Structures are given as structure tokens and as C-alpha cells.
Amino acid sequence: MATETMTERTVLVNGKEIFLAEAGSGTPVVLLHGGGPGASGVSNYSRNIEPLAEHFRVIVPDMPGYGRSAKGVDRSDPFGYLAAHIKGMLDALGIDRAHLVGNSYGGSCALRLALDAPYRVDKLVLMGPGGVGTSRGLPSAGLRSLLAYYGGDGPSLDKLRTFIRSYLVYDGDTVPESLIESRFRASIEPEVVANPPLQRPAGLATLWRMDFTRDRRLQSLTTPTLVIWGRDDKVNGPSGAAMLAERMPNADVLITANTGHWVQWERADLFNAVTTAFLKN
Questions:
Q1: CA angle at 99 for the pair 8 and 62, rounded to the nearest 5°
Q2: pTM of the predicted model over 0.85
């Protein structure tokens, strides 16, 4: 996606480059993308940036390890690493507080940043975040497909097509082949293949750090939060929404029908309207 009003730049955080795109003006809203192979900020939010930019200053980074940002993620504490770098990005942009919107891996990053530095976050919108009960028990079929992408015989277009069309969305036929092909090209960059940003947790300690239900700070996090979860999410099951509602004192929950893991893309009109209303209220 490209618009006449969207600008691009790179900022340095702890010596590493974070690429970001911006559109609109006003209260800053940071859109944090998911962790699937070949993901990037602008591609994941291609149906949301312009509508949200009519009301806000929309900032769309490529998360560390993805797109045009520096590769590599601390495997001992991936959510903490991502949160620290997004906080550093806000510092580099001179932004004291912002709304955070995060899907999947990006939702985990947003939630961790709110827990680590609640004074930097105005409101949260979380769509199917990882680490909400998903690190206990057997992983979902979608998560197994995601984590197996770089394993075995390595990445392939067929593997990515299966993950996106069978697990990421409710109706796989709605995803154009061009989108899958562009993500595949991004997923096989040598730096990414050598050090995939999303891997199986490196030991029990890491697994516990990635499980928000073990974090007692969740119960005292008063940040106004909107949780949007696809009823048919095959990556991070929608039961996570109830867990957040039980533990977070100011969490509203919306479950969307006929929707998988990519709610901001599959139900873009609804997502844009609800998110705008929540952030502006």
C-alpha cells in the first residue's frame, strides 16, 4: 500500500534500525503487526491505515526482525525485546504517550509495553494476542503450522499458502495470491532464514515470560483496553479473550463472527469503525 500522504523513515533504537511509515495527524496511534512469515507493518494494516489516519497520527513500524527493520530478536525474552524497541522508537520520535494497536505478536508486544511502562500507553486495542493462555498445553494447529515454517525442508510458497489460507483467515479464498507471493519473498531473505524472528520458546523460563496469565501486573493494569477476537481464530484461540476480560479491570471484549486470526484485514470496516470510536471516546 502507498498513499500520497504516507511518509517513511528509519530511526535508531539501541543501535538497530526500526523502519516506520506515518500518515495523518493528531493523537499518535501505533499499529503493531503480527509475527507470521514475511509480515510487515504496512502490508498487515493495508486496509486500516488510511481510515485511521483521518482521525489520528498513524505510525506503522516494521517490528524488529521483520520487513525493513533490523533482523534478530532476543529469544530469551522476545516480547520484552519487542516492547523495549517500540518504546525506544517512541523516544526517538519524541512521543511521550500513544495508543497501541496490536495483532497477534504485535498484540503481545503492545501488552508487554503497557505492563512495563503503563505511563507511555493511553489505550490498547488487542487482536488475538499471543501469550494469553496459548503457551499452555498443546499449541493450536495454526500455531504449529506457523512455527514449522522454517523447520524441516525449510520455507516454501506452499507452506506459506497453507498457513495463510487455512489458518490465518476464515475464508482463504479472499486472500489474493499476490499477497502470499510478496510475503514469501520477504520470508526468504537470507538474514531472516538464518535467524527467524518467531521461533519455539527457548526453554521453560522463556515460555513463562511469554505467558501473560502468569503476570500478576495484568490485574492492576488500568489502561483502557479493547480486545477484538475472531470467533474462528485457529492460531490463538478466542478463549484468550475471556482470560483478559477476567484479569484486566478495564477490558472490553468484542468477538467477531466468521473471522479468523486477521480481524483487521478480514473485517476491516468493522475494525476501523470500532477502533476509531474506542480511541476517540
A1: 35
A2: yes
- Structural domain count, the chain: 1
Query: What's the CATH code of the domain at 230?
Result: 3.40.50.1820
Which distant-in-sequence residues (6+ apart) come within 8 Å of 156 by Cβ?
none
**Range 239-245 average pLDDT:** 92
- 226 φ/ψ angles, rounded to the nearest 5 degrees: -115, 120
Residue 60 lies in a domain: yes
Whether 2 is covered by a domain: the verdict is no
Beta bridge partner(s), residue 21: 8, 60
Cell of 234: 485457529
CA angle (197 as vertex; 180, 64 as ends), nearest 5: 95
Question: Which residues on neighbouring strands pair with residue 126, listed in sequence order?
Answer: 102, 227
Does residue 158 sit within a domain?
yes
CB 214 within 8 A of CB 204: no
The more confidently predicted of residues 206 and 34 is 34
Q: What domain range includes position 187?
A: 7-280
Catalytic-role residue among 33, 55, 99, 261: 261
- Active site includes 99? no
In a domain, 1, yes or no: no
Decide: residue 209, CB within 10 A, 0-12 exposed, 13-18 middle, 19+ buried.
buried
Q: Write out the DSSP string of 4-21.
A: TT-EEEEEEETTEEEEEE
